[in-house]
Amino acid sequence: MQESILIEKGKNGDRKALSELVKLHENTVYNFAFKICRDKDKAENTMQETFLSMLKSLHTFDGNSKLSTWLYRIVVNHCLMLARKSGNNEFVEPENEDELYDNKYFSDSRMLPDKIAENNELRVILDKSISKLSPEYRAVFLLRDVEELSTEETAKVTGLSVPAVKSRLHRARAFLRNEISEALKK
Amino acid sequence: MNFAKIDCHSVMKHICESLDEGLNSEKCKEIKKHLDECEGCQNYFDSVEKTIEFYKQYEIKLPEECHKKLMVYLNLED
């Protein structure tokens, strides 16, 4: 059944339609929550809260954006709230472009591996690298580059302006690239 | 994306899009000229693309148990 029909039925309290909507999006929501939180328990908790929020406020969904975009926004807000609660002030906001684009990174001719398949060492590096990044930067990078939302959609989900999304994306990419490259040298 | 086949044009497009510049703007032409000649930049941008690809490939599977708990939590179990 088409998603728009499921949404309409869901708004009228049709449990089967609501259940279908959850099943359609649970994998995406769980994966995205994990990618931001980098923790399976937090990802599960975020997924539960996201869908609970969807059930409570589906009647306000106007269909002007995709349901998935709407869900991404709930996940981002929940993860940012968890990060603030954690009181971790160690996150990096990569704003120093001289440092980010230091010449040493361009003289490094080492090639990165092609795939991460079955490469646990690389997975650990990916987790560590993105966990250093402030959640606001993480959200922009993941939405735009990994989930492949447009710049405009990413701006809508994060509440940032389009230029702010672009500059954060650029810096987040450089930061992660540098972290991974440096970690692989060790 | 096949990284072995990545070429300067796709890298350029990527950079110039993020700069909000058309491919034929003066700035982009200068960047292209530099990129054509600079191995350091080519490797750098290749590694940025790979970084993005790593995070794309990194998916985890929703455990069946989590799915069941979710449906109970939402009071939507069959």
Structural key phrases:
heterodimer; A: mainly alpha; Rna Polymerase Sigma Factor, Chain: A; Arc Repressor Mutant, subunit A; 2 domains; B: 78 residues; mainly alpha; 4 helices; 67% helix; 0% strand; elongated
Task: Summarize, please.
With 186 residues, chain A is an all-alpha fold. Chain A has helices at 3-11, 15-37, 40-57, 67-86, 97-100, 120-132, 135-146, 151-158, 162-185.
Give a description of the structure:
The complex is a heterodimer of chains A (186) and B (78). Chain A is mainly alpha-helical. Chain A has helices at 3-11, 15-37, 40-57, 67-86, 97-100, 120-132, 135-146, 151-158, 162-185. Chain A has two domains: 3-86, Rna Polymerase Sigma Factor, Chain: A (Orthogonal Bundle), CATH 1.10.1740.10; 97-185, Orthogonal Bundle (Arc Repressor Mutant, subunit A), CATH 1.10.10. Chain A has nine helices and no strands. The longest helix of chain A has 24 residues, at 162-185. Chain A is elongated, with a radius of gyration of 18 Å. Chain B is elongated, with a radius of gyration of 21 Å. Chain B has one domain (3-73). Chain B has four helices and no strands.
| Range of strand content of chain A | under 5%
What percentage of residues of chain A falls in helices of 4 or more residues? over 70%
Largest inter-chain interface? A-B, 46 and 32 residues
Largest sheet of chain B: none
- Reading the helices and strands of chain A in chain order gives HHHHHHHHH
Strand content of the residues of chain B, in percent? under 5%
What is the tally of beta strands of chain B?
Answer: 0
Distance between the termini of chain A: 51 Å
| Sheet having the most strands of chain A | none
What is the H-and-E element order of chain B?
HHHH
CATH superfamily of the largest domain in chain A: Winged helix-like DNA-binding domain superfamily/Winged helix DNA-binding domain
The count of helical stretches of chain B stands at 4
- Total count of strands of chain A: 0
Shape of chain A: elongated
Class based on secondary structure composition and strand pairing of chain A = mainly alpha
The count of helical stretches of chain A stands at 9
The Rg value of chain B, from CA coordinates, equals 21 Å
Total discrete domains of chain B = 1
Oligomer: heterodimer
- Overall pLDDT confidence of chain A: 89
* Average pLDDT score of chain B: 80
